[in-house]
Protein: ABC-2 type transport system permease protein
Organism: Microbacterium natoriense
Amino acid sequence: MVALLVSLRWRQLGHQLARNPWMIVTLIITGLMALGFLAVLAAGLFAMRFAAPEAAVTVLVLTGAVITAGWWIGSLLVSADDTLAAERFSLLPVTARQLLPGMVIAGATTIGGLGTTLALALMLLGWSVNGLALLVGVLIIPLALAICVLGARVISGLLARWLARRRSRDLVMTIGVLLAASSGLLINLVLAAVREMGDVGSVFADAADVLGWTPLAAAFGVPASIVAGDIGAAGLRLLIGLATVAVLWFASQALLAARLVAPIQSSGGGRVRSGGVIDRMLPATAVGAIAARSLRYFRRDPRQVVNVVMMLFLPAILIGVVFMNGLQDESIGFGPVVTLVPAIDALLAGTIMQMALAYDNDALALHIHTGVRGSADRFGRLLGFGIIAVPLLLVLCVASCVLAGRPDLMPGSLGAALGLGAISAGAGAWVGSFLPGRAPAPEANPFGRGSSGGVQSLIAMAVMSPITLILGAPALGFAIAAFWTPALGWASLACGLVVGAAAIWGGAALGGRVLDRRWPQVLAEVSSEA
């Protein structure tokens, strides 16, 4: 059964790669990024092994706790895409006791599991400060990996019924995106709190010592205690680690058995309501209908709700980081720069428009069957997005100028934000017609396959960024010059509105022509399940 489940998971991955060459490229790029991270980890541990061996042990315990927590929390984000979910076996004559070993080994031999194993092996560089600790470090690798995999299964199993509801999944996704986006701000807050406590090294050492007695890092605390010469503590921590595995194993088995006899079915988002006032105010044309549908998607589709949330919070988070680090101090000279932070949303605007077709998935066939022209699709989506984006940018520009204490820079802030945003959206409307990207299917895990658009989105970003910067240079340049001559802010606003309007028209017209020629190919690309 173990060999069958492991081979089944890898065969599924092989079929997906064979059907979608873009997924191969994405896997290669992701693998190279992971190898780069592991190389940095190895270099850091090697340096600390000789320069600061005691600090290396502390870092190892904290890193181990982060890896375990990453597995446990990450299970909430990827459980919906589990190819070996219990529900898939509910009609087969198998028991939880037969399935669980294979599922655990299959989870440990995924790409993420193999990467974790390699990271645990690299941590032996740090444990080599002591011969016995090095030997124990080798032995705890399977123990630590088992805690990661089993803990992830238990947490996802306990919350499976809650996550089966649409609103719960949307909430988890939105919180996850916000936490990821605000990670820099959170790190700043943590470091500031640690600095207030006094000696940073002692604070981290105390935290590692406490975590070493918890299920999160008990396995890593065993060699750490041996390095410290406390064999008794090492034995107790080993017992905690083994007990954690035993408890998680039986809990996983019980949860698996329950799901085999009572499969969990995902539910939708509830009753569909009629459109709002803005929807009814749009023209009764193909452009107006597509704009109205886009507005409903921005309210109801969790993948696009996150886009709107990110447009609102990303500049706010960046402004928070600037103020936390004191960069708004006039003596440093970064105060006026805060007024340009809303222009960061230009990056999001291009990506949102570029992936607009991918979010439709196979529902895009409706446009083909009804004979919608490509230009109507492009203008409609731009109109729907503009109704959401323009008010957000106005609010962010006003807030940034007030926080910076420079209301005289309002025209320049608006010129940079609206101009770059419009140019980026127009570029996205054009590029998205031949590089639509990949997005998770409706009701699928928003963090699953295709959540970042795949390689097509990377290529699209490489195309859109130069266009945005070149065409937006006048608006951005005048906005920067307004720091010293505020009247130039009006020139920035004029350039932003004129060039932005031209970019929107040009992007929609050119993208529409491409779509008129490529509707079948685009439908095949965005609806593929590979």
